[in-house]
Amino acid sequence: MDKLILHNCFYLFQSFVEMYSGGRFNGFEGNYFLEREEGYKSKVFTEAQKCLNLSSWHKESIGTGYISECFKNAYKKKGNLIYYQDGGRTEKRINGNIKEAEAVLYDIYLGDNDAIAFEKAVSFFGAKYDLIAYMFFIKNKDTYLPIAPQRFEDAFETLGIDIKLQYNCSWNSYSAYLSIITEIKEEFEKYFSLEISLLDAHSFVWMVNEAKKHHITKEIWLEILQNDSLLKQNDIDILKSFYNAPNHTSTCSSMEEKTGIPVAVYNLAVGKAGNRIAKHLNFKTNYRENGKTRGWSVLFRGQYLQDNHFEWEIKPELAEALEQLHPELLLNQGNIERITKNAEIIANEYEADNEVEREISTVKFVTQSEFKQFVGVPREKPELVETKHGKRYKREKQRALNALNRAGYLCEYNKEHPTFLRKNANVNYTESHHLVPMAFQDCFPNATLDTESNIVSLCSNCHNQIHYGQGAEIIITELYNQRKDALKSEGIDISLEQLLTMYK
């Protein structure tokens, strides 16, 4: 069992349930959508158990017709589709040989060897996997489960599990099937940190392919975002507003406070947009518990807060698609603060700068005339590499050399700042510094921050003041004003306010 595939399917299932229930997935119990779709199984079991009335069975009853009548009533329970598809064949078989039928049924429900009872059932009733599995299911739902061979074989294929169920009605096959779902149950509980029943795990497997069909990938969202018959400009503006909220999450009332747009407008616009998208994708109608339809959950996840306000969160794949079409969104306050507050990322950034300085110290410098001025042509995003300090974007030493050389080995904040000559070359010692820190590379998917336009030459004092001292914003402001046009020409479009936030 490939856990990576399994966990991805858990995510698809979670997204599917949340779209049709309109709330966060916190388990099967109490989720009206899951109870509506799958709750009938437990009800069928409970009613079938009553009909079987096993405490009234005795060996002396075999051949009297009593045991078979109990089973027929249990077999006909509403919700058991096997009965409706059977066309009365099972009842005819029972009626054709009541004594043998009841002996088989007695062994299934009151015998002490389930493997032998299963094979006896196959011998008498035929290799009807769904029927035999149902017989065992209504005996004990915590041990046995119903089966639809083709449906579950297809589901297991999606889960990356190879098992042959069709035309393979045997105890060994059934035991393997039960074992797999038990293993899935255990992994499901670990993944979601909650307890579920074996029948819940069965429901997950039953629904997994339906969940996959209802998953809107980033690629599909890209198409939707560019289709103005599905999402109008005001819809895009609303999505951008939510994207810029912390963690892409906000209540409509909070949005109203910020934008002045009434809550009702958000609800109406997003609901209509969701319904258009659902229709376009041929999704089934999304009904609320009160019978009314719901559209917003196509685009958002949602949950009630303690103050009873309802919070929306843009779905991850939609957020990714928005970022690709509108890369300026990546420079939102939330993303910047998330990175600046990550001590590991920032420490990694400083260490990378120091490594570049150590490499430069071994290089024999050449004269400025041998280098061309950078021309503002955007380069590709750098490669993400694994280092002893963790993952970070690769820096090209030569670009730092180019930047220092272009500055004439002087401090670009103040050319009069004192310095000294390098050991390995007859040039001033200055240090390279990425004005927009490389830690924020992910905020610029279509450009690289490791470019001469973004690398400045600083004396040691100014470089350390930027990282550790007071008044750093004065130096950063001066450097920004020098470089903002060059930065923009290479796809690094950033405001001074955004840049200053990166240094807090």
Q: How confident is the prediction overall: mean pLDDT?
A: 92
Strand order of the largest sheet: 1-3-2
Measured distance between first and last alpha carbons:
46 Å
Note poorly predicted spans: none
Count of individual helical segments: 23
Strand content: 5-15%
Q: Which structural class do you get from the secondary structure elements?
A: mainly alpha
Biggest sheet descriptor: 3 strands, antiparallel
Helical content class: 40-55%
Shape: elongated
| Total number of domains | 3
What is the radius of gyration computed over CA atoms, rounded to a whole number of angstroms? Answer: 33 Å
SSE pattern, N- to C-terminal: HHHHHHHHHHHHHHEHHEEHHHEEHEEHHH
How many β-strand runs? 7
Describe this structure in words.
With 504 residues, this protein is mostly helical. It has 23 helices and seven strands. The strands form three sheets. Strands 1-3-2 form a three-stranded antiparallel sheet. Strands 4-5 form a two-stranded antiparallel ribbon. A two-stranded antiparallel sheet has the order 6-7. It is elongated and about 110 Å long. The protein has three domains: 3-213, no CATH class; 218-325, Arc Repressor Mutant, subunit A; 333-502, no CATH class. The mean pLDDT is 92. Strand 2 (300-304) and strand 3 form a beta hairpin.
